[in-house]
Design a protein that fits this description.
The protein is of the alpha/beta class. The protein contains 15 helices and 13 strands. It has a five-stranded parallel sheet, sandwiched between helices. Strands 1-2 form a two-stranded antiparallel sheet. A two-stranded antiparallel ribbon has the order 3-4. It is elongated and about 90 Å long. The relative contact order is 0.11.
């Protein structure tokens, strides 16, 4: 009996400590380990409380409750590792932890703890990290500005042309080594084509960022005197903005994202909660109803347009040209359209912003006999691989080359 009490004490202690950790750092520290501890911890808690209140009369209730908790835990394991239908993107690609769409970039993991990220819209300067999934593992090295590139001198050579590449994980180059990001491959193509100039394409892509973060990063990096600023976008931009808010997220120099609903921790650790909330009450992965999400997406597109115009104006005020690049996902290529098509058409019609619309170029370079060739995207991760980034660089190069001529 003593052994049972000791084991119960350590189980409940671990459950409480993990819960306090979640309260401090948010849902992004939740893994299946907490799911196990939750059901075991609740079993221990209810068992001891019931015993102290009702003594031996509670034995039947305690046994029934523990059996119920174990059945629920078994259901959780089956839904998570068997069906897998409600896994988040990070979980599908092999991640062990739930990643909140609300607070995901406010904290950084250092060893076994989490700290507030003081760099906000870039990575920690002069560091390295391995970007790994079930399909690949590549080293990301960040320079003195916290971007995935070599250190760049402030003074520009006379014949040097600098291209600043802004964007999210597609620009940082998730799914490819350092020398195979589209920014690096574009630099190689430009230097091979124009021998009288030296092109330097600065990779300022930051995984998880959006154009609002990109605006503040441009303010930081404009000292490097870019001649051209390229903003690379995909269909995640509006939803990211709807989750995080607009320019008001930066208040007095501090980054303040919106908070998720109070029940997000339950959604994070319980696949049962996910199935009920999504299948019964029709919530999305953003933890909002479809109707509410559609309304907020309309506002998000307005904010996205505002961010693009601010980027364009700021680039022009610093003697830099500006262009927007749209990258399609593999699903969008198969469907023959992107979720951003209407927005891009609106932007082209209402402004003079240069737009590099890459889907037709992707079609020409990546489709074989009318069938999509899957060797350009990772199957699970869904990012481009080295071949795909080379196609993207070729599409951008062709557009820039046409404009240059």
């Amino acid at each position: 009996m003593l052994v049972v009490h000791i084991v119960s004490f350590f189980i409940f202690r671990a459950f409480v400590l993990y819960t306090l950790r979640i309260l401090e750092f948010g849902c992004s520290v939740i893994s299946f380990r907490y799911t196990i501890l939750f059901y075991l911890g609740m079993s221990v808690f209810v068992a001891y409380v019931s015993y102290f209140i009702y003594r031996k009369r509670a034995q039947g209730f305690i046994m029934g409750f523990v059996i119920l908790m174990m059945l629920l835990l078994g259901t959780e394991a089956f839904l998570r590792y068997g069906l897998k239908t409600k896994a988040t993107y990070i979980e599908r690609k092999g991640g062990k932890f739930y990643q909140s769409r609300y607070q995901q970039r406010q904290y950084i993991k250092t060893k076994n703890t989490y700290d507030i990220n003081p760099w906000r819209f870039a990575h920690i300067p002069n560091t390295e990290r391995w970007e790994s999934s079930s399909e690949f593992s590549y080293l990301h090295t960040y320079n003195n500005e916290g971007i995935r590139d070599d250190s760049i001198p402030l003074i520009k050579d006379q014949n040097e042309v600098r291209v600043l590449c802004l964007g999210d994980s597609y620009t940082e180059g998730i799914g490819a080594p350092q020398d195979s990001t589209w920014a690096q491959l574009l630099e190689d193509k430009l230097n091979n084509a124009y021998k009288d100039k030296r092109f330097n394409c600065m990779n300022a892509g930051v995984a998880g960022s959006d154009p609002i973060d990109g605006y503040y990063l441009l303010e930081k990096l404009v000292k490097y005197q870019p001649d051209l600023v390229l903003l690379c976008m995909n269909n995640t931009e509006p939803s990211d903005i709807s989750m995080r808010g607009g320019f008001d997220r930066y208040t007095d120099g501090e980054l303040k994202y919106n908070y998720g609903p109070r029940w997000e921790p339950f959604f994070a650790f319980s696949y049962i909660v996910r199935h009920i909330s999504m299948d019964v009450f029709h919530y999305t992965y953003e933890l909002k109803t479809v109707e509410k999400m559609n309304k907020e997406m309309e506002k998000a597109y307005d904010t996205l347009e505002e961010a693009i115009h601010k980027l364009s104006t700021f680039a022009a005020s610093n003697n830099a040209a500006f262009a927007v690049i749209l990258i399609p996902t593999d699903e969008e290529l198969l469907a023959g359209h992107t979720y951003m098509d209407s927005f891009i058409e609106h932007l082209a019609y209402t402004s003079n912003i240069n737009i590099i619309y890459t889907p037709p170029c992707f079609d020409n370079l990546m489709l074989t006999n009318g069938l999509y060739n899957k060797k350009y995207y990772w199957d699970i991760d869904r990012h481009l691989n080295s071949n795909g980034y080379d196609v993207l660089a070729e599409c951008i190069f062709n557009k820039l080359d046409m404009q240059t001529q």
